[in-house]
Design goal:
mainly beta, Thrombin, subunit H, 6-stranded antiparallel beta barrel, 1 helix, 3% helix, globular
C-alpha cells in the first residue's frame, strides 16, 4: 500500500495513488464530450484524500457521506476480515471548490462503514446534509455510478490532499489483488499515466465521460516485490501471480450503491448489497 502521509505511526503502511490532468473523451459514433473534472466536492483528510459522495437515490435532506479508503481511518488499518460499523467519529475534512481552494471544514458524526476486506473503503457520515453543504458553499456531492467501469474508459483521479488531478484509462481488472494480509476483489488497474503517490489514497476515480465516481484510489506496486505491503500482486482465477512494478490500482464503488438506504444509512441487508459483513 502506498503511504497516505498521515503521521509517523501510519506512514510505514498507508496506500496512495495518483493520475494526470483530465482530458479524454470516449470514442463513439460521435465522440462523447469529456466532463470537465475539477476539485468541487473532494476533500482533504489529515493523511489521505476523499470526496463527498451520494447515491443516485440520495435526498437533499440526507446526512452527507464522505468516501475514502479503509486504510485511511484515523484509528489505523482494519485487520483482514474486520468490518467497522457505526463507530463514533469527529474527524474533520477540508472541503474544496472547483479550483481546489478550501471553502469549509466538514465534520463526521461517525464511521458508517469501513473495511479492507474484499475492498478498501471507508464511509463517514457527516453532521451536515447535502442540502446544507449545497446551500452554504454551492458545492454538490459527487454521484456514485451504479455500473462497473469499462476497460479502456478515461478516468481522472482527483486528490484533495495534494490538489492534483491525474488522468489515464482503465487498463483492466485484477481478479484478486493481494497486499500483505489483505486481498481485494476485481480491482481496477490503471494505465501507467496514473502513477499515483502517497496522500492520494482515497481519491475518487471519476469517469471523464459521465462525471460519476467509479472507484476509489488505493494502492500501487512500488518496488517490484511480490504481494508485500506497498507491493500488491495480481492473482488470477487459476492462482497465477503477476507483479507489475509501478502500476497502480483502485477499488470499484458501484458495489457500495445498493447498500446506501434512506437517510444515508449503510444497510448491509438491502437487496443487492454484497459488502463484507462483521
Amino acid at each position: 500500500m502506498k503511504k497516505p502521509l498521515a503521521g509517523a505511526l501510519l506512514s510505514l503502511l498507508l496506500l496512495g495513488v495518483t493520475a494526470a490532468p483530465a482530458v479524454a473523451s470516449a470514442p463513439t459514433e460521435k465522440a462523447a464530450p469529456a466532463v470537465a473534472v475539477g476539485y468541487a466536492g473532494t476533500v482533504a483528510l489529515s493523511n489521505c484524500s476523499g470526496a463527498v459522495v451520494r447515491a443516485p437515490g440520495s435526498q437533499p435532506g440526507d446526512p452527507a457521506l464522505v468516501l475514502s479508503n479503509g486504510h485511511c481511518l484515523e484509528t489505523g488499518f482494519p485487520a483482514a476480515g474486520e468490518v467497522v460499523r457505526d463507530r463514533p467519529s469527529t474527524r474533520s475534512f477540508s472541503l474544496l471548490n472547483a479550483a481546489g481552494t478550501k471553502v469549509a471544514t466538514l465534520r463526521a458524526s461517525k464511521v458508517s462503514y469501513a473495511t479492507m476486506t474484499d475492498t478498501d473503503i471507508s464511509v463517514y457520515q457527516l453532521t451536515r446534509t447535502y442540502a446544507q453543504i449545497q446551500s452554504q458553499y454551492g458545492i454538490g456531492a459527487l454521484t456514485l455510478d451504479t455500473v462497473r467501469p469499462a476497460q479502456g474508459s478515461s478516468i481522472s483521479v482527483v486528490s484533495g490532499y495534494w490538489k492534483r488531478i491525474y488522468t489515464c484509462s482503465v487498463d483492466g481488472f485484477s481478479y484478486r489483488l493481494k497486499e500483505g494480509d489483505w486481498t481485494w476483489k476485481d480491482s481496477v488497474r490503471y494505465t501507467p499515466a496514473c502513477n499515483t503517490i502517497g496522500g492520494t489514497s482515497g481519491s475518487p476515480v471519476i469517469d471523464t465521460t459521465t462525471g460519476k465516481v467509479v472507484a476509489v484510489n488505493n494502492t500501487g506496486n512500488e518496488d517490484g516485490a511480490r504481494c508485500t505491503v506497498n507491493n500488491p500482486c495480481e492473482v488470477d482465477e487459476n492462482g497465477v501471480v503477476t507483479v507489475r512494478q509501478g502500476i497502480n490500482y483502485a477499488q470499484q464503488t458501484h458495489t457500495l450503491v445498493p447498500c446506501i438506504g434512506a437517510g444515508s444509512v449503510i444497510d448491509l441487508n438491502r437487496p443487492g448489497c454484497a459488502l463484507p459483513r462483521p
